[in-house]
Each structure stands twice: as C-alpha cells, then as structure tokens.
Amino acid sequence: MSEKAKEYGAPTKSNDFVGRGGATERVDFGGSAAEGAERSQRRRVPKFRFESEVEKLQKSKLRMEKSGEDLERAREKLAGQKPVKPPGPVKRITNVAKSETWAFVHGKIHQVEDENVGVEGAHKAGLPCVGVLFGYGDRAEHEACGADYIVEDMAQLRKFLLD
Questions:
Q1: Alpha-carbon distance 51 to 33, whole Å?
Q2: What are the tens digits of pLDDT across the range 62-112?
C-alpha cells in the first residue's frame, strides 16, 4: 500500500482476513481462519465429470428399452391398418403400357443420341464422319445428323477407309 493511502487512513489488510479477503470472510463477520483453511483444503470437483462404465451401461439400457417401446407402438399401429390393396386390371394394363412405351422411347432416344454424339464429336475434332447403313438408322437419319459420307456395307467401308 502506498504511503499516501496510509496518510488518509485507508483500511489495510489485517491478519483477521481469511481467504481472498472479502468483507464477509473477516473474523468479525463470523468467518474464521480454520474455515478458510478447510475451504482451501476441500477437493475440487472437476468441471466435466466422466461417466463410468456402469453409468454408460445404464444409459444404454434405458435407450434400448425406449426404442423397444417405440418399436412395439409402431407394430401395433401397423397391425391396425388395412393391407395394401393390389391394383385392379385397368391399372395393371395402364402400368404395362406406360413401361413399354417408356422403354421404346428411351431406346430410340439413346440410339439417336449415340448417332448425334458421334457426328458432333467428329465434326468438333475436324474429322470426316462416315454413316453406315448396316447399323442403326437409315439414309435419311444419317443425312439429317450431318454425316459427311454414307456407306451401305462393310466392303464399301473398307474401300472408303483404305483408299
């Protein structure tokens, strides 16, 4: 404490303070040195306590019981519901027609896509494109795609490539 504080009569810390020196810990306020020593000797409790294996096992059992109860409730609810009704004859015929139509259209789109991709790829690479009539498509489709040359069989293709 500075000399100036002593001149003005500022209170000084005396020996009757316990602990950190708060006013309520002073001996004349009911505190004692023994209490302060005892308080400082107490075992500190960690902020985060780790669970023991037994506690983990108990929590796991509780979760399992709860999930078992939830499962039983779900089973009871399902047992009370009506079974799924199979589709009638009109619905079955409609579904078959839809799936066959989809398969046909998808096959055609895939076929044309393959032809277009090949022609476009050749043109982008600066290569001539040859359409063959012994594979997919006819002459009109190959011309519509933009094929540079069209051959009718393997002999013509061999001659075109080797000449």
A1: 36
A2: 999 999 999 999 999 988 888 888 989 999 999 999 999 888 877 665 555
What's the CA gap between 9 and 11, in Å, rounded?
6
Query: Cβ(149)–Cβ(131) under 8 Å?
Result: yes
DSSP per-residue letters across 10-74: -----TT--TT--GGGSGGGT--HHHHHHHHHSPPPPSSPPPPHHHHHHHHHHHHHHHHHHHHHH
Residue 48 has pLDDT above 70, yes or no: no
Burial 61-91 (b: 16+ CB within 10 A, else e): eeeeeeeeeeeeeeeeeeeeeeeeeeeeeee
Which one-letter DSSP state was computed for residue 136? S
pTM of full prediction above 0.70 = no
